[in-house]
Amino acid sequence: xxxxxxxxxxxxxxxxxxxxxxxxxxxxxxxxxxxxxxxxxxxxxxxxxxxxxxxxxxxxxxxxxxxxxxxxxxxxxxxxxxxxxxxxxxxxxxxxxxxxxxxxxxxxxxxxxxxxxxxxxxxxxxxxxxxxxxxxxxxxxxxxxxxxxxxxxxxxxxxxxxxxxxxxxxxxxxxxxxxxxxxxxxxxxxxxxxxxxxxxxxxxxxxxxxxxxxxxxxxxxxxxxxxxxxxxxxxxxxxxxxxxxxxxxxxxxxxxxxxxxxxxxxxxxxxxxxxxxxxxxxxxxxxxxxxxxxxxxxxxxxxxxxxxxxxxxxxxxxxxxxxxxxxxxxxxxxxxxxxxxxxxxxxxxxxxxxxxxxxxxxxxxxxxxxxxxxxx
Length: 376
Known about the structure:
Elements: H1 16-23, E1 42-48, H2 53-58, H3 64-67, E2 70-71, E3 75-76, H4 83-92, H5 96-99, E4 105-108, E5 111-114, E6 119-120, E7 123-124, H6 131-134, H7 140-146, E8 150-156, H8 163-168, E9 173-177, H9 180-189, E10 199-205, H10 207-215, H11 220-239, E11 244-250, E12 255-256, E13 259-262, E14 273-276, E15 282-287, H12 292-303, E16 307-311, H13 312-317, E17 335-339, E18 343-346, H14 352-355, E19 359-360, H15 366-369, E20 370-371, E21 373-375
Parallel strand pairs: 1-10, 1-11, 8-9, 8-10, 13-18
Antiparallel strand pairs: 2-21, 3-20, 4-5, 6-7, 11-21, 12-19, 14-15, 15-17, 16-17
Helix pairs in contact: 10-11
């Protein structure tokens, strides 16, 4: 059993957008929200990729504005604790087992889909694995827009038509940006108090995660980036119109790995394996027919105490993904691997860039699972 299972339905990323919509008087349904936020005329949610609760607490001196806000969290992000899963949970208001985006890469119709690039190898799969069909559930953003909320998504311009945006964050008006300046400008224009009606603005910033991967979380480069984000938050708070609820969260934390096993050069981890998905901290192992038990034993023997290694049925029964819809059950590995401590299963041949990162995330440690929900 993992040390920290996600708190689906009570205190996870899936509950954030419904709570914000309830706060601005436009609830998605009649149920009371799992997270209670103060009422407001409009709401802004800034998601900082890689902003973990423990990392922010450790480096509070670099982020005095953020550290001084009210924290309605910490929240858990879900499993795997990786960007595509978390952003889809945020946008849909659903746990991973319901929306079906289940890994950095995962099997869909027999293919290993890279959810960030919506690709298979170098091949764009947006036409053959149509994002709106891979994730067909209406998003919370779509439902809010259909109910009359002015919804705006502010993110990098290159993500406008990405598979991840189309699958998990569709709904409302997309405003593409390129830097902190136009991110701030578009967020602020989205809550202009001269425009009547409820308004929800979702803004996304990616650079903290990128620097954490490349240099390690807590590195000098990472800390300088955190300081810039803190300055952005301070300026937004000063400029937001009265009656606007400002919230900040993350999609996962991060750990610095110090020991790795290479699945591409370890024969014991290859026998009986048809496809290997996930990321270095959370692996989906898709096995050849009849090989699941042997693969389970081999991976447990190689990884030992560095991982929790279980069959699909056990992971589902224990609630790793929340309630799992029948249509997505085979997207979960026949064997599921969650790394413990600071270990990782890398792929130096098939994922050389990803394998080179000192900063990784995806598993159940509190450093990866917990994110803040800061409000002002």
